[in-house]
TrEMBL record:
It is an enzyme of class 2 (transferase). It holds the Pfam family Aminotran_5. Its cofactor is pyridoxal 5'-phosphate. Its EC number is 2.8.1.7. It comes from the Bacteria. Belongs to the class-V pyridoxal-phosphate-dependent aminotransferase family. NifS/IscS subfamily. This is cysteine desulfurase. Residues 6-370 form the Aminotransferase class V domain. Coiled coil: none annotated. It catalyses: (sulfur carrier)-H + L-cysteine = (sulfur carrier)-SH + L-alanine.
Length: 390
């Protein structure tokens, strides 16, 4: 028997559900028409596209015309920020944006570019020790010329769920469009845009057992928006480019399946996650949970271990057959501590030793027990080696 690999990096990406692959298959080979074509090949593709749009709209509780399909979560974040910022400035409403300081780079670096290259002003909201935004801070940051607020639904690095509905109420009372990056919440948390009160929302299929390279941007009817990708009139002029029908069918199928099993699967993941958190905090000295202790994603466990290098720990775990992450796939490869952990006030010698374990459908109790055996040894060994080096 070979080694059983344990995948604990579902916040980076998930495997595609075989039922999703099956649903996508015909759109590569048989129903290959361009959904913009008039003939029967095109019409068959357009039917699948519009059915997928209705599926997504039903889960979001919105009108199908408010659903825009994009090429990724990153693209949706880019379109939301630039699309609204440029439209608002063009209408003379101002040039001030508010984003949280713990956003994914897709939002953070877009905000920074709007600031540095396009002359917008950005307020980066602070977070508390759990990585949570205080809605009162949002209220205080609003100015007469504020044109967009963007706060993520759940954080990818530390799993904290933000008080989105409260922030949305504050934004709406002041007439300011509110975007949320809901990529980590997709398939796990309530996505009803009216209960949440959001005007724009980003999703990405590969985070909920769908294919990579396909996303959603929900845009509430009447939200100021300037198309960022111009070309043909696809997606009602909001995102040009020949539509990725197979990917979109995959996205809609994956979201529907995730929605159907959401409650039972979340309960199962929560049990495994709590066992993992409790076990690690008991067995590893100088370990801390990062992110909120209760307001966190059901599959998400994240830690810091004082005095170790998170990247070295990942390699040690990989050798033992465990795939994990330091927090954000996009920042791996660099030895600096995560900006998110620093924004939460963690000292440098803790922040460099971060580990994120994110559970998914394939994980079992046995996986958790294996991690609880392997991890304490790995951390102890890294600390010993460091003591020798010094
Ligand atoms: C993964 C992720 C993204 C990027 O989505 P892609 O489809 O991979 O581009 C954006 N925001 C958050 C919170 C994410 O976790």
């Amino acid at each position: 028997m070979g080694m059983r690999w344990i995948y604990l990096d579902h916040s980076a990406t998930t495997p595609v559900d075989p039922r999703v692959v099956e649903a996508m298959q015909p759109y590569f080979t048989e129903i290959y028409g361009n959904s913009a074509s008039i003939h029967r090949f095109g019409r068959a593709a357009a039917r699948a596209l519009e059915e997928s749009r209705r599926t997504v709209a039903e889960i979001l509780g919105c009108h199908p015309t408010e659903v825009v399909f994009t090429g990724s979560g990153t693209e949706s974040d880019n379109l939301a920020l630039r699309g609204v910022a440029f439209a608002q400035r063009r209408a003379g409403r101002g040039h001030h944006l508010i984003v949280s300081s713990v956003e994914h780079h897709a939002v953070l670096n877009t905000a920074r570019q709007l600031e540095e290259v396009f002359g917008f002003e950005v307020t980066y909201l602070p977070v508390d020790e759990y990585g949570m935004v205080d809605p009162d801070e949002v209220g205080r940051a609003i100015r007469k010329d504020t044109i967009l607020i963007s706060v993520m639904y759940a954080n990818n690095e530390v799993g904290t769920i933000q008080p989105i509905a409260e922030i949305a109420r504050i934004a709406r009372a002041r007439g300011i469009p509110f975007h949320t990056d809901a990529v980590q919440a997709g398939g796990m948390l309530d996505l009803d845009v009216n209960r949440l009160g959001v005007d724009l929302m980003t999703l990405s299929a590969h985070k909920f057992y769908g294919p990579k390279g396909v996303g959603v941007l929900y845009i509430r009817q009447g939200t100021p928006y300037l198309p960022v990708i111009t070309g043909g009139g696809h997606e009602r002029g909001r995102r040009a480019g020949t539509v990725n029908v197979a990917g979109i069918v995959g996205l809609a199928t994956a979201l529907r399946l995730a929605q159907e099993s959401r409650e039972s699967e979340n309960a199962r993941l929560r049990r495994l996650r709590d066992r993992l958190i409790q076990g690690i905090l008991e067995r590893v000295p100088e370990a801390r949970l990062t992110g909120h202790p209760t307001e966190r994603l059901p599959h998400h466990a994240s830690f810091v271990f004082r005095g170790i290098n998170g990247e070295e720990l990942l390699l040690a775990l990989d050798v033992e057959g465990i795939a994990a992450s330091t927090g954000s796939a996009c920042t791996s490869g660099r030895p600096e501590p995560s900006e998110v952990l620093l924004a939460m006030g963690l000292p440098h010698e803790w922040a460099v030793g971060s580990l994120r374990l994110t559970l998914g459908k394939s994980n079992t109790e046995e996986d958790i027990e294996t991690v609880l055996e392997v991890l304490p040894r790995a951390v102890a060994r890294l600390r010993e080696m460091q003591a020798i080096e010094v």
